[in-house]
Amino acid sequence: MTTPASSPLQALARIRPDVRAMHSYVVQPSTGMLKMDAMENPFRLPAHLQAALGQRLGSVALNRYPGDRIADLKAALAQYAGMPEGYGIVLGNGSDELITLLALACAQPGTGQRATMLAPMPGFVMYPLSAQLQGLDFVGVPLTPDFELDEPAMLAAIAQHRPAITYIAYPNNPTATLWDEGTVQRIIDAAGAQGGIVVMDEAYQPFASRTWIDRMRAEPARNAHVLLMRTLSKFGLAGVRLGYLIGPSAFVSEIDKVRPPYNVSVLNCEAALFALEHAEVFAAQAAEIRVERTTLIAALRQMPGVEKCWDSEANMVLIRVADSAKAYEGMKNRKVLVKNVSTMHPLLANCLRLTVGNAEDNAQMLAALQASL
């Protein structure tokens, strides 16, 4: 009996058509480049802390699944964030996994009625992507031309679509905007009145002038449907991949049910605990980045060819130039990588997103930009 030959094309047909139509998330090759495209902390651990961390990681039991140290990490994060009484924490492999878990927990497969996710746009690309992959409808509400929340449009969209999840990035990526507190609270109130969950995404909290957890503590009843999401990536541990979600225990226990077991490795857990024990080192780094941000924005606003430079409450700065593709390629040829966000949304036409680095990195980036305009 002859076995019929298999065909890779036949097997590929089993992959969802929308997945096959997607483009993969591409990380630009960066060898030999100044990497100013991903909002990474430019500072490494001091040498004595590198040695101490290496010794500590070397003693971790790699032959065992993560155990009680996960509870220790949750307790450390709760203390670091000032978590309110009666709240709990879910850990994720970066905040990306938490966004996926939230979508998975709120999807309504087999009911004939798809759940909806809503967010102001332009915003973080993982919101619409996670909605698509987990079977939710996504509604993007355009910001104003100056990247403020369009409150009437947000309220109207919430009333019309009754979203299960509304994301508010605080500050926003890629615009680095920290929106008005009163506007945000009214949007939160509207979502709650429709029975929806609001996620305050504070990935860039170390560089912002305020945090929503203060409002959650001050007005717990008004914010009882609010979850706070953060990551240690911008804290200074992008390579560790650790995100955390804070919310009322009843909420987080449900979301935790869809979390894969052992999703945070023993190495990630121990590195995060070590970093939190030395939080003052990372706080000093964030303070230096905030100072450099002020200097960088001032220089950009004086640079001929930079048509607009927006205020920033994150470790990135958004600018508009005459030809973003030309400027991007010119900087890349000069060994500096930034992010050309001009194709992400019509409001971002000819915009570049620049990471805020240390003084030396910022000077090199400014020189490359000036030569490329």
Description:
Helix content is 43%, strand content 16%. Strand 9 (306-309) and strand 10 form a beta hairpin. The N and C termini lie far apart (68 Å). It is globular. The mean pLDDT is 95. Helix 7 (151-161) packs parallel to helix 8 (181-193), helix 13 (279-302) packs parallel to helix 15 (359-372) and helix 14 crosses helix 15 (359-372). The protein has helices at residues 8-12, 17-20, 47-58, 68-81, 94-106, 126-134, 151-161, 181-193, 213-218, 233-237, 249-256, 266-277, 279-302, 324-333, 359-372, and strands at residues 34-35, 87-92, 116-121, 137-142, 165-169, 197-201, 226-231, 243-248, 306-309, 316-321, 336-337, 339-340, 351-355. The strands form 3 sheets. It has a 7-stranded mixed beta sheet, with helices on both faces. Strands 9-10-13-12 form a 4-stranded antiparallel beta sheet, covered by helices on one side. The chain is an alpha/beta fold and 373 residues long. The chain has 15 helices and 13 strands.
